[in-house]
Amino acid sequence: MKKNHNPYYPDRKWLMPLAVFFLLFLIVTSVYPKSSSHGATRVVLDSNDNERLELGLPPLPRFAYLISGTKGDGGSMRRLLQAAYHPRNYYLLHLDLEASDSERLELAKYVKSESVLREFRNVMVVGKANLITDKGPTMIASTLQAIAILLNRAKDWDWFINLSASDYPLVSQDDLLHVFSFLPRDLNFVEHSSNLGWKEDLGAKTIIIDPGLYHAKKSGVFWAKERRSIPSSFKLFTGSSWVVLTKPFLEFCIWGWDNLPRTLLMYYTNFLSSSEGYFHTIICNHKDYQNTTVNQDLHYMKWDNPPNQHPINLTSEHFIDMVQSGLPFARSFAENSSVLNRIDEELLKRAKGQFTLGAWCVRNSNSNSISEKGPCVAYGSPHDVKPTSSSKRVEKLLMKLLDHENFRPRQCSLSHQPWGRVIPLYSKLMLNI
Ligand SMILES: *[C@@H]1O[C@H](CO)[C@@H](O)[C@H](O)[C@H]1NC(C)=O
Ligand SMILES: *[C@@H]1O[C@H](CO)[C@@H](O)[C@H](O)[C@H]1NC(C)=O
Ligand SMILES: *[C@@H]1O[C@H](CO)[C@@H](O)[C@H](O)[C@H]1NC(C)=O
Ligand SMILES: *[C@@H]1O[C@H](CO)[C@@H](O)[C@H](O)[C@H]1NC(C)=O
């Protein structure tokens, strides 16, 4: 990787504290959103889990999804929303600043006009988008802002799931809600490792400046000449940027009653690929959360050998392997890829342009008429799910992840600190905190 030294950087040291304030500002302001998102959320579905309890079934959880995309992703995001939709869940759609206002508006219009979404009002579109620099910290700032919106607007969810426009589900939400209803509500799915590999040199010791914080056009990050030491007051972890995190853990990260998330946000402001380390490092360094980690990102991905920056685009050739993995999501898919049609037909039973159906949508078995309610003759109870045999695959995977050979032994360990020396947390160049 070529290091792109910015000759003007030394004169711009003042930008660093600014950047941190900007990040904190973004997060704080999104907690009090004024008119920044279209489509208000209404909690229409009162939790009425008594029936399930009587049947000896655990209460169903709710997921809060963030679906992000960039220029040209509007169509894929709409399709992903239809495929992963369930009235119980919440969805926040974010098209970044690279996308045009008209594309964002079109997505918002779709959400407003679709009768199912109008009925359940559980989808929001971020109106004021953020610029996201690939690899820069604006990625993590944008995710944190989205989480703050979800915490503020939709209060009763259990897990946050982060998806991009090139992701796709491999099971219906009825299946996923059913399987997750049996899980302890404090499990966080984060694929992590303390082996930083190349990142130790290129990430942890290098200071980067994300131009996305100051400029309106997307570009790469700047590399500062100065280097810093590996921190000693916390241990760095890295891993997949796809996460499934619990609400209590995210509240801990956002509300910041503890110093750790704030300190790490500042540290990661100048860290390469912050979204591959921020949550991982917090969760692994805090005693209350260390033991809640499952070392899996729940995404099926295939990498080139040697691995590229992005996983390879999946095709029909991967279909069987993908299904057998038992993973609930997969990536990356090219837009309108034919394997997506196969997933719709064989796994989700989703008709083109329609939602993945479940117990929430009552159908007339012998009629194909598309009514005002789409294919639903009436809306069924959202507190009811109709799991299919696909849920067994996910169940099998989770049981394996949670068995005694995999669960505890693969959690993060703070022992064997590889750097014994006590080094100051921030090199001189960094903020004086
Ligand atoms: C969330 O999703 C996006 C996909 O748009 C991904 O690139 C990002 O790194 C993810 N993770 C976090 C922690 O933000
Ligand atoms: C987490 O697990 C480890 C090892 O299993 C145990 O020693 C430790 O006490 C646990 N921490 C908490 C807070 O439960
Ligand atoms: C995947 O497909 C997209 C087109 O949708 C293309 O732009 C991208 O380069 C492909 N990625 C890989 C790794 O082949
Ligand atoms: C994908 O399909 C949609 C609708 O069928 C179409 O509008 C869009 O242009 C297609 N995109 C690509 C990249 O083929």
Characterise this structure.
This protein is of the alpha/beta class. It has one domain. It is built from 15 helices and 17 strands. Strand 14, helix 13 and strand 15 form a beta-alpha-beta unit. Helix 1 packs parallel to helix 6, helix 6 crosses helix 9 and helix 7 runs parallel beside helix 15. Bound molecules: 2-acetamido-2-deoxy-beta-D-glucopyranose (4 copies). One 2-acetamido-2-deoxy-beta-D-glucopyranose binds next to loops.
A few lines on this structure:
With 433 residues, this protein is an alpha/beta fold. The strands form six sheets. A six-stranded mixed β-sheet has the order 1-4-3-2-5-12, sandwiched between helices. It has a three-stranded mixed β-sheet with strand order 6-15-14, with helices on one face. Strands 7-13 form a two-stranded parallel sheet. It has one domain (62-431).
